[in-house]
Amino acid sequence: MSGANRIAGQGRLTPARTARFTFDGKSYEALEGDTVASALLANGVHLVGRSFKYHRPRGIVSAGPEEPNALIDVARDAARRQPNVRATVQEVFDGMKVTSQNRWPSLTFDVGGLNNLMSPFFAAGFYYKTFMWPKAAWEKVYEPVIRRAAGLGTAPTEEDPDHYANRYATCDVLVVGAGVAGLSAALAAAATGARVILCDEQPEVGGALHYDRSVTVDGKEGFVWAQEAAAKLAAMENVTVLSRTTAFGYYNHNFVGLVERVTDHVARPDRKAPRERLWQVRAKRVILATGAIERHMVFGNNDRPGIMLASAARTYLNHFGVAVGKKVAIYTANDSAYEAAFDLKRAGVQIAAIIDSRSKPGDAVLNEARSHGIEVLPGHSVVDTKGHRRVSSITVVRNGGGGKRSIAVDALLTSAGWTPSVHLFSQSRGKVAYNAETGQFLPGTYAQDCLSVGACNGTNGLQATIEEALAAGELMARATGNDGGEKVELRGENAFEWTGGMAGAAEGAGADTNVKAFIDFQNDVCAKDIRLAVREGMHSIEHIKRFTTNGMATDQGKLSNLHGLAIAAETLGREIPKVGLTTFRAPYTPVTFGTIINHSRGDLFDPARKTPMHAWEEAHGALFEDVGNWKRAWYYPRAGETMQEAVDRECRTVRAVAGVFDASTLGKIEVVGPDAAEFLNLMYTNAWDTLKPGRCRYGIMLREDGFVYDDGVVGRIAEDRFHVTTTTGGAPRVMNHMEDYLQTEFPHLKVWLTSTTEQWAVIAVQGPKAREIIAPLVEGIDISNEAFPHMSVREGKICGVPTRLFRMSFTGEAGYEVNVPADYGQAVWEAIWARAETLGACAYGTETMHVLRAEKGYIIVGQDTDGTVTPFDAGLAWAVSKKKTDFVGIRGLKRPDLVKEGRKQLVGLRTKDPKLVLEEGAQIVADPNQPMPMKMLGHVTSAYWSENCGHSIAFALVEGGHSRTGQTLYVPMPDRTVAVEVTDMVFIDKEGARLNG
Amino acid sequence: MAEQALRKAPLGGFHGGSAAAHVTAAGPASRLSLRAGTDAVTALSKALGLDLPTKPKTSASSDARHALWLGPDEWLLIDENGADLAALAAKADVLHSAVDVSHRNTAVLVAGTKAAAAIASASPHDLSPSVFPVGACARTVLGKIEVVIFRTGEQDYRVECWRSFAPYAFGLLAEGAEDAGL
Amino acid sequence: MLLIYCPYCEEERSELEFRHGGDAHIARPTNIADITDEEFAEFFFLRDNPKGLIFERWRHIHGCGRFFNAARDTVSDKFYASYKAGEPKPDLSAVHPATEKTVETYEATEGTAK
Ligand SMILES: [Zn+2]
C-alpha cells in the first residue's frame, strides 16, 4: 500500500518498489521516484505547512520548483538536516524524516494561527509602521519577538558532515531544460559534433511531458520519446546530460552556474560521493528551454489545502499515479486546465464542474468536456472556499452577479495561464518585452550569446516549439564552428492548442473587495495589499514589491509576480509594461552554502603555507602564528613556561649567546639584467648603482603618492644580479608593483624579475656566537669580520650545498642569514641547530624577533606604518636619496600635505611605570583631563616587555612626534590613564657596536 | 667538514586520488625560470638542446627535458634528470635571465581517464583536447593558488606549483580525482 | 565571471587568471619630479569613471604575466578590444555607439521593461 489515492494503472512508478518515510513522526509508504509531495498526496495528506505571516493552513500548490507553500524540513540523521526544502522537488528515500515547519505546537493546532484573526493589524507595510516607536522598544521588545516568530525553518546546529564538489566545464552549447524544446535543441546541436551540455532540474527529462500525456513525438508518447532522446544524447561522446541539475545563475559572458543534486535522493549514499556538485559552465552559446510556469487564480480564500495548479494535478496523476481528490472542480481562465479534467475523468475521478471565468472558452476543449459529460460554467467565477484543513466546498457566481451556488469538492484545480520562465534570460541582462496579445513578458533584447526556445520564448504549439528548438540548436552549434552531421527532424503532435489566460484579481476579489485573495502564498501577500501599497504612494513596482514583500520569499514570486504587477497596473490606471517588471536575480532556486563553497573547507579552505623547517619546529614545541597564509614559529615554550617567560628567555639568549630563526617566509625577488641597478634606483628611494657586488643595503619602496609601501634588504650578487627581499606579507604585491612599472612605465630597461621566495630556505643566526655556530659548516667563504663585514653577501657552500650567505641583522646583533635551496632547509637547519645547542643558543620565533627589532628601533612596515606614513615620518630620511632625479614616489613626497608641520611621526615611548606594557592601538592624548571628545594625538603601533632593557618599550605615531622628545603624554585606558615619555626609537646599543662584533 | 645536507621534498611519497585519476608527487627535477627576448631564442635553444617554443601554450621536450612557454619572454625549463640548466643557458652569449627555481616548484602528477576532470574540479582552464592537446601547457589557477598545467600525455598531466602550496594542491587534486572517479 | 581575451596568449581566459589595473593610457610624466601639484593630482588621483566605454589595464597575472589594455563597456561588461601594452587606443566609433540617454538609477536601468 503506497497510499489510498494511488490509482492502479496510472503513473510511471513501479508499485513494487516502495520506501518508508515519516512526516511529523507518522510513518507513510511511498514509491521509489515519488517526491515528498506526491507521496503525501497519495496518502491523502494535503495540509503540509503554515503560512509565514498569518499561519494559515497550507497545502501543496504545484509539482515543481515554483512551490510556494510546501516547504519542509528533511532529515537523514541528526547532522544531515535541511530546512525549507520544497516537498515538490525532494525525492523520497527510504528512512527519511520529514517535518512540517512554521507551526507550534503542531501542524493541526497552531498558536500562531491567531495572527490570522489579528490580520487587520498585519496589513502591508505593517513592519515599517508598527515598530517605529518608541526607539528603545525595538531592541528589547519588537526585534526579539519578530525574530522568534519570523523565518521559516530552523537552521541545523550541527556541523554539516557531507561534502560538496565543484567542476569547471566549457562547452560549445549549453542547453538549459530538457523538455521537448531543450531535447530538440540538444539533439540538433549535438548532431553537428558540438560539445553540448544539457541540464534539467528534474530526475528525469521531459519537462511538461511529465503531465502532458496527449503529446506524441515521432509517433511515441512524449515522455517515452524524451527518455530515449536523453539516452541517445548521453551515449554521445560530445554530450554531457545532467539530470537533477538546476541552472541557478546566468552571469557575464555566458558563465552559468549549475547545481547537481547527487545524493539527496539516495537512501544509502556512497560516502565518497558529494551531496551536491557545483558546475561552473562557460558556454560559447546558451539555449534556454526553461518552459513556463502555470499561475493560480486569485480569489477569496484561494489558499486552502487541496487547491492547486491544474498542471500539478496532471503531474500527480499521469506521472505519480496519484489522484489529488475524489471530487474535483477546475477554476480556470485558459484552455489548458480542461485537460486536467479530462485526464482525471478518464482515471475515474469525479469532476464537479469546470468554472471558466471567460465567457467564451476554446471550442475544442469545450466540446471535449461536453463529450465527457463534464459540466462547464463559462463566464462564472469561484469567489470563496470553505474547509479548514482541506477545501470542502467552493462558492461559484455568475460574472456580474447572480447564480450563486455552493459546490462540494475535496480539491480545486486552478489555472490563470502560463508565465514564461524568463528568469535566466533576465539574469543574463537581456531585456524582456511585453506582449499585450498574450499578456506575457517575453525575451526581447538579448545581451549575451543565447537564444530562448519553446514556452519560455512564448512559442505555442508542439511542432512550432520543436522546429524553433531544432533550428536554434543547429544555428548555435554552427556558430561555434561545428559543421558536421545531418539535419535532425522531429514530428510532434498534441491534442489541443491552448488559448486564454489572465493576470491579476479575478471576479469577487476586485478593487472594492476586502477578501483574502492570495497572490504570494509564501509571504502571505493578498491582492488588497498591492492596492494598499499603491494608495500609500508606492508607484514603482520595485517599491510595491518591498512594501508588500510580494515576490520576496524563497520562491521569488514565481507564481505571484505577474499577478502583483497586473493589480498594481490596474490600481495605478497604467498599462502593465509602464509599471515594469521587477528584476530576476540569481539564484533561480535556493542554493546551499555547501555547494557554493564546495571544496573550500577544512584543510582546503585556504592553503596553509609551511616552511621547509616546519616539521622540526613542530617537533621542538613551537607554537605557530598565521602571517598571511604562512604558519610561522611564534615562540618555543619549554615545559611550564608561559609565553612571556619563553619570549623573555629567547630574548636574553639571543643577545647573550645567539639564536636561530626561520626567516624563510620573507619575500625574495631575483632582479637580473644589465639595467637591474637602474631599475632598482627607480623602485626604491635609495641609490643602488653605488652598491658593490657582494654588499647589501636596506631599501625603502614607496608608492607614487609618497607613502611607504615595503622595505627590505637587497644584496648585489653580481653586476647584473640582485637578490631583493620583501616583507613576508608584501611579497606578491611588491612583485606586481615592480612588474607594473617595468612593463608599462620602464619597458626600455633590460631587466627581468623572478620570484624566488620559495627557492630559498632562510636560517637567521643572530647573536655574539653566531659566527662560531656557522663557521665549521661554511665552505669557500671567508666569514671573518674583516672579509665579511656587516651588510655583505657571498655565494659558497654550507653543509656541502650551495648557499647565499648574508651578513645582516634584524636584531641588532652580529648575524647571518643562511639561504639554501629549500629542499636542503631542514638538513642545514639541523646542522646549525646541533652547533647552536652545544654553544647554548636557542631557537626563537616571531615574537622574540619582534621584541629584538623593536629594542633596536627597526620598524615593521604594515605594523608601524599604515599606508599614510612617509619615510620622513618613520625617521628613515637617511634612506631617501637626495641625488636621484627620479624614483617612484619622488613627486608624491613633495605634496603639500606630506611636507607640512604636525604630521604624525614615529617615536619611541617609555611608560613612567616601567613594568607596564602599553596596548597596541591605544590612543595618545596630551592632557588626560580635557573634556571629551579628547583630541587624539596618535596611537601606539608596537609595544612589548623588553627583558633586555628591564622595562617596557613601545613605538607610536604621534602628531609632531619628532619634536616631542622628552614630553610626557598620556594613554587613557578603560581602567586607568598611563603616563608615557616620548623618546627616540633605539632602546639598546644606540651606537650599533654589537652589529660589528 | 660538515656532513652533506640531505634533500627533503615537500611532497615526499604523497599519493591519492582514484582509479580513474591517480594523483602522485613527481620526483625531484631541476628547473629554470628563463627570460629572454625573441632575438635570444635561437642561441638559447642551441645551448639548452631543445627549441624554445614561441607560440602560446606550447612546449618542447627532448628526453627528460621540457621547455614550457609561459609568456612571450618567459619559459619554465624542467629537467627530470636534474641537469644544471642555468649553466647550460650561460653558454649562450645572449642577453637573458636564468634563475634556478628547482626548489621553488614541485609537481603533482595526475593520470588516468578522468585526469582532466580531476583538475577541472579546481581549475577553470579549458583542458579540452581541441584547445589543450598533448604538449600544451599554461600557467593558470587551481583553487586559490597559481599553477602551471602541462599535458604530458593523452591522460597525463603535470601540475607545477610553489612548494608551500603543494599540500593544498595535492589535497584539491586528490579530492577532485575522487569525485571525477565516481 | 568575465571572459577576457589576452592579446599575448591569443585566447579568451577566465577572469580568475587576471587582475584589473585601473585606467589605461595614463603615462607617468617623464619629468615627474618637476610637475605641479595640480598636474600630479591629475596624473595620480583623478579618474573619469565613465558610464559606457572605458579603456583599462589588465594583467594576465596568473597566465602569461603581461599587462595589456582593453576597451570595455562598464554597463554591459562587453569587451570591444584587447591590445598589447604600448599600442595606441583602437578606434571603436564603428562598433561602440554613443551611450544611450542617461538613466538615473540602478533600479530604473534594471527594472525597466520595454
Ligand atoms: Zn596572457
Contiguous low-pLDDT stretches of chain B (5 residues minimum) are none
Number of domains of chain B: 1
CATH topology of chain B: Gyrase A, domain 2
CATH class of chain B: Alpha Beta
CATH third-level topology of chain C: Folate-binding fold
User: How much β-strand is present in the residues of chain B?
Assistant: 35-45%
Shape field of chain C: globular
Q: How would you state the average pLDDT of chain C, rounded?
A: 88
CATH architecture of chain B: 2-Layer Sandwich
Integer tally of domains of chain C: 1
Number of strands of chain B: 11
Average per-residue pLDDT of chain B, rounded, comes to: 96
Number of helices, counting only DSSP H or I runs of 4 residues or more of chain B: 4
**Classification by helices and strands of chain B:** alpha+beta
How far do the termini of chain C sit from each other? 27 Å
Distance between the termini of chain B: 55 Å
Number of helices of chain C: 2
Helix content of chain C: 10-25%
**Oligomeric state as shown:** heterotrimer
What would the keywords be for this entry?
heterotrimer, A: 997 residues, alpha+beta, Ubiquitin-like (UB roll), FAD/NAD(P)-binding domain, seven-stranded mixed sheet, 24 helices, 51 strands, 28% strand, elongated, B: 182 residues, Gyrase A, domain 2, six-stranded antiparallel sheet, five-stranded antiparallel sheet, 19% helix, globular, binds zinc ion, SoxD (chain C), SoxD_sf (chain C), Heterotetrameric sarcosine oxidase delta subunit (chain C), sarcosine oxidase activity (chain C), SoxG_het (chain B)
Write the layout of secondary structure elements.
The complex is a heterotrimer of chains A (997), B (182) and C (114).
Chain A: E1 18-23, E2 26-31, H1 36-42, E3 49-50, E4 57-58, E5 71-75, E6 81-86, E7 96-100, H2 114-117, H3 126-130, H4 135-149, E8 164-176, H5 180-191, E9 196-199, E10 216-217, E11 220-221, H6 222-234, E12 239-242, E13 245-251, E14 255-261, E15 276-288, E16 292-295, E17 307-309, H7 310-318, E18 327-332, H8 336-346, E19 350-356, H9 363-371, E20 376-378, E21 380-386, E22 393-398, E23 405-408, E24 411-415, E25 417-420, H10 423-427, E26 431-435, E27 440-445, E28 450-452, H11 462-479, E29 492-493, E30 518-520, E31 525-526, H12 527-535, H13 541-548, H14 561-572, H15 576-579, H16 593-597, H17 614-619, E32 623-627, E33 630-635, H18 643-656, E34 659-662, E35 667-672, H19 676-683, E36 696-702, E37 708-718, E38 721-726, H20 731-745, E39 752-755, E40 760-766, H21 770-774, E41 778-779, E42 792-798, E43 801-807, E44 815-821, H22 825-838, E45 842-843, H23 846-855, H24 896-899, E46 904-911, E47 923-924, E48 938-946, E49 951-959, E50 968-972, E51 977-983
Parallel strand pairs in A: 1-7, 8-9, 8-15, 9-12, 15-28, 17-24, 18-19, 18-24, 19-20, 34-45
Antiparallel strand pairs in A: 1-2, 3-4, 5-6, 5-7, 10-11, 10-29, 13-14, 14-15, 16-25, 21-22, 22-23, 26-27, 30-31, 32-33, 34-40, 35-38, 35-39, 36-37, 37-38, 40-44, 41-42, 42-43, 43-44, 46-49, 46-51, 47-48, 48-49, 50-51
Chain B: E1 15-18, E2 21-25, E3 30-35, H1 41-48, E4 59-62, E5 65-71, E6 74-79, H2 85-90, E7 97-100, E8 105-111, H3 115-119, E9 137-142, E10 145-153, E11 156-162, H4 166-180
Antiparallel strand pairs in B: 1-2, 2-8, 3-6, 3-7, 4-5, 5-6, 8-11, 9-10, 10-11
Chain C: E1 3-6, E2 11-14, E3 19-23, H1 37-44, E4 53-59, E5 67-73, E6 79-84, H2 106-111
The complex binds zinc ion.
